Amino acid sequence: MHEPTNFAINCRDVSKTFNTTKVLDQIDFQLPGGSLGALLGPSGCGKTTLLRLIAGFETIDQGQIWLGDREIASAKTHVPAEQRQIGMVFQEYALFPHLTVGQNVGYGLGRQARQQRIDELLELVGLAGLAKRMPHELSGGQQQRVALARALAPNPQLLLLDEPFSNLDAGLRDQVRSATKQILRHVGATALFVTHDQAEALSLADQVTVMLGGKVMQSASPHELYLRPTSQAVAQFVGEANFLAGIARDNSVECGLGQLLLTKPMHGPVTLMIRPEALQLVPDPIGNGLILGQRFYGHYQLLDVQIGALQLAVQTGPRLDLAPNLRVAVSVQGPVVAFEAS
Ligand SMILES: Nc1ncnc2c1ncn2[C@@H]1O[C@H](COP(=O)(O)OP(=O)(O)OP(=O)(O)O)[C@@H](O)[C@H]1O
To answer: Which residues belong to any copy of the ABC transporter domain (predicted)?
Structure first.
């Protein structure tokens, strides 16, 4: 079957079983050309397996994968990894320890114009002048850039990155992440990276795909995913969320915070999701809430507030006037998302 699309990657109904465990269950996944995608999910959800199927390191049991309009995998087809024009960056970088930086970058290139391309790529990743160094003479961040330059050298149609920043310490990680994004944008690459770090996925990717238990739960822009999760599971996995029960009638819902407005009409029992920053509080001796606890993060804080039988997280900026045992008035100032009660 041929399915021409505008997607750089198109996975349809892809399943994979190891021994008797179904690791990927009817995956539908698309990534537009020129964009940066993230596969996000907890450990064991199957994200690395999906990346490896796209790379061609494993065969698929069912479904199809296209790279542009080329079918690269199905139950009957398996284009070998080296013929897929896919570049890889591994978690451990996998640099050849006995080769210099320049030789590492040039590894997948033919002889022609090799030196020029190596220089060009080292310049691109900000390592011009380090071609003669050995990998062990570089910092973690520099090694990651060499791995990126090596993957980009043959001009791949697609770049796959497996937890590319997890080996870097926190201080360096942010810096390397934005440098990587800049480089990928500069060369107009289509790239897909795997992460279990939601902040990394939200801050870096154009499209975030949440996987849970071998299934794709939602694929959307970071804003859409955070503000309009389509399931309670996604809302819970991405960011901090408050859940409360309610009874919906048309565009309003009755719940422990009173009557609230819904963005779409619903009926009957629902579960409401309200982000901590969608709640506001002010000190009030006769208010509806009591501060039970405080989690202070510097540029913001989360306050655990008891309201009747509910316990909700409320986000504020750093303030000195809020502390446990203070009575406050809590109100809803942001979007309320409703799911059919499960
Ligand atoms: N070659 C294999 N043989 C048997 N089971 C495997 C194989 N590869 C992966 N699995 C199993 O498949 C499941 C999904 O693994 P996968 O590595 O895709 O998850 P992940 O979401 O990337 O997790 P992590 O973030 O921990 O790497 C796990 O239960 C894993 O043990």
So the answer is: 9-238
